[in-house]
Amino acid sequence: MSSALISANGVGKRYFLGADPFGTLSLRDRVTDVVRSAFRSRPPAASRDFWALRNVGFELHRGEVLGVIGRNGAGKSTLLKILSQITEPTEGEVNLYGRVSSLLEVGVGFHPELSGRENVFLNGAILGMSRAEMRRKFDEIVAFAEVEAFIDTPVKRYSSGMYVRLAFAVAAHLEPDVLIVDEVLAVGDAAFQRKCLGKMESVASQDRAVMVVSHNMSVVTQLCERVLWLDRGEVVAAGVTREVVGAYLAQGSTSAGSWSPPAQAGVPLQLHSVSILRDGGTTGDIAGDEPFEIVFDYSVVAPLAPGRLAILIGDANGTAILTSTSTDKMPALREPWRPGHHRVYCRIPGNLLAPGRYFITVAEPLESGGDILHHGALSITISEQNSLAARDGRHGVIAPLLEWREEDAT
Amino acid sequence: MVPESNTRFTSGSDPASLANLLGRACYSPFMHKVLRPRHGLARLKLAEVWEYRELMFFLAWRDILVRYKQTEIGILWAFIRPFITMVIFTIVFGRMAKLPSANLPYPVFALAGLLPWQLFSTAFSEASSSIVGAGQLVSKVYFPRLIIPISATFSVLVDFLVSALMLAALMLWYKVPISMNTLWVIPLTALCMLAAIGSGILFAALYVRYRDIRHVLPFIVQFGLYISPVGFMSTMIPAKWRLLYSLNPMVGVIDGFRWALFGGTNAIDVQALTLSIVLTVMVLIGGLYYFRNTERVFADII
């Protein structure tokens, strides 16, 4: 037998949309059918079905951290719910060889009226810890959460940070064979997030396994050796993190050098296109020493609160390399937007990025304030040609041309 | 990154896990579970519910704690509710309607009926709305769903025990003799709990799917009070209707309570009690099966 802790085969989950969303039941259950038919006065209306997950298979081994990535609605959460036994698969089979604990939401079962201490015990019981286990770990949990002074205060008086830390601390001290985590690292401050990541890494190093869903590609890259990429309920790719994350980020972005968002009516700022310009032409391939510009082409058709355009350049692992915004150097753009058709240019010098593939996320302002992000809208390839990094196998994420000078010290 | 926690994490074979193994029957390093679509009638898997008994205890404990948090008089509410009902019953049925009370002081007579009835009605309505009330738990964590309604009924049992003290005090006050027969109250309370659990889990499962239940529940509780022999003696029902009347499981329980506490003229109707027991067991089994067969979609539709 292999070391698999979870092995899934052909797993699918169907939901019914429309008038009779629970059609599965009446087809399958004679008993419930009898009871139900007593309540139902009309025949079930036609319903559309929808596969949230289809033909998904994978294995999770001891000592492994498996990432699950995909866009919203790709079926990631449905998969985790099936593995956590919260809902049943419609088809296929999952074999669990060990105790599985899942953390789909931080602080499930926390009651605001109860004290921190009471909630630790309650939450621990809900997540499957025995009382003896909890008594043994209680001090460790409280210390991890850094809430010692408030442990007998009702959690409704906690700050949201304290609340989340305590909730995560309980979950982090579970000792399951498999820990399933859904995007919970989006909580807490950076220091606490690092602590949580460390805890999860240590779980994997203890011959257990972790399965984690995240939209944060740098967390996925840092934590996982293997990644499962889902799209519209199906596995698009599974394998080594670098490759799958790279392909995931590349998907949907254009390397032709220009990208246009779907047209939106009624918004005050209409973004027509974002392009990469080199020597006056659009392109996605740049030589190492060539400067290029990212051009936002937009119209302001209605009054709009002051805001900004921004770019985020990330590498193929999802690690953010840099962020730059239109208000960094152009005070004029801090003023209210002027109506009309405009272009804004962001110049990126040559000899900055190391050779490789990059994804550019662009941000435009929202009417209500804040930004809307278009993840990986553009991709760009910096070639080794004339790149400093290529010169003698240099290391580094960036390859800038820096100034060196010499002075006579006499 | 967090070195101290690295070393404290325990793996499969050390003594800490052994303690774990002893403390928690369901944990086994070689556990194997298959998740696949179920077909046909679900198994009850009551053993799994038993494995999670600690959680059942914790949820009941939470309900009790929360019920009286930030209340000024706390657990006294457990006295006040049956007390006021008793006073009203005494005035309306005892004084004004002058219903017979088997030669007992009417307040004692009424309270002896009110206690099991309030246990049943509160446990039943708490259990019925428990699953919908625990929507977040149901859609985010796995444990046997039966735990939720069952723990809800047990949290009510504590209130019952508290208000039973009031009955004891009242019996001492009115110098009602107490006999060994009183011990029969214990199995009768168990019967009452089983009736509440059986009907409660049935309604809890129905409630997830049919939110109409919310409007039906208060009606059932209200109506049940008047058709159960709480304020009057079931001997007031004409003999030919007695068996039909006993289809209400609470008839056997309430009559049984009075017989156990006061004996004598409150002779127990064995036939009616048997009918109560049979019906309770049937409702319980039916409720369990209905619940287990619908719980698979709870998370999808709650």
Number of β-strand runs of chain B: 1
Q: What's the helix count of chain B?
A: 14
Q: Structural class, from helix and strand content of chain B?
A: mainly alpha
The helix content of chain B is: 55-70%
Overall residue-averaged pLDDT value of chain B: 83
Task: Summarize this structure briefly.
In chain A, 25% of the residues lie in helices and 33% in strands.
Written description of the protein model:
Chain A has 410 residues and is α/β, with parallel strands linked by helices. In chain A, helix 6 (160-172) packs parallel to helix 7. In chain A, the strands form 4 sheets. Chain A has a 6-stranded mixed sheet with strand order 5-6-7-3-8-9, with helices on both faces. In chain A, strands 10, 11, 12, 14 and 17 form a 5-stranded antiparallel sheet that branches. Chain A is 25% helix and 33% strand. By secondary structure, chain B is an all-alpha fold. Chain B is built from 14 helices and 1 strand. In chain B, helix 5 (77-96) packs across helix 6. At the A-B interface, helix 1, helix 2, helix 3, strand 4 and helix 4 of A face helix 1, helix 2, strand 1, helix 4 and helix 7 of B.
Short descriptors:
heterodimer, A: 410 residues, alpha/beta, 6-stranded mixed sheet, 5-stranded antiparallel sheet, 33% strand, B: 302 residues, mainly alpha, 14 helices
